[in-house]
């Protein structure tokens, strides 16, 4: 398992950046996987997700100042680690930006927590694994 699930940052113009990343990342076999229109985003901007094997791990979006909305998500296979991250980050001085829980708007197994670091960067830990049922 990789340590990073995805990273996101704001760009001046999502379409200009989309064209750039489509061409620049092609040698790495990284392609645009999804586009989310402004009607479905928090900022009212367009979001483009790039990745491999159908999973978008790099997101760019507009309608925020360039560099704003920087977001990094770490991957884990255990929900308990999401919980532990959230508590440890708050203890370390982070600001709660979303307590541990299911984010149904992504999918039914997207269990994540969000904390703003000392510079205001949105740090997430996410478990996307289907929970194992108790015997």
TrEMBL record:
Organism annotation: Marinobacter iranensis
Ranges for domain VOC: 3-128
Name this protein carries in UniProt: VOC family protein
Family matches, as InterPro entries: Glyas_Bleomycin-R_OHBP_Dase, Glyas_Fos-R_dOase_dom, VOC_core
Pfam families documented for this protein: Glyoxalase
Tree of life domain: Bacteria
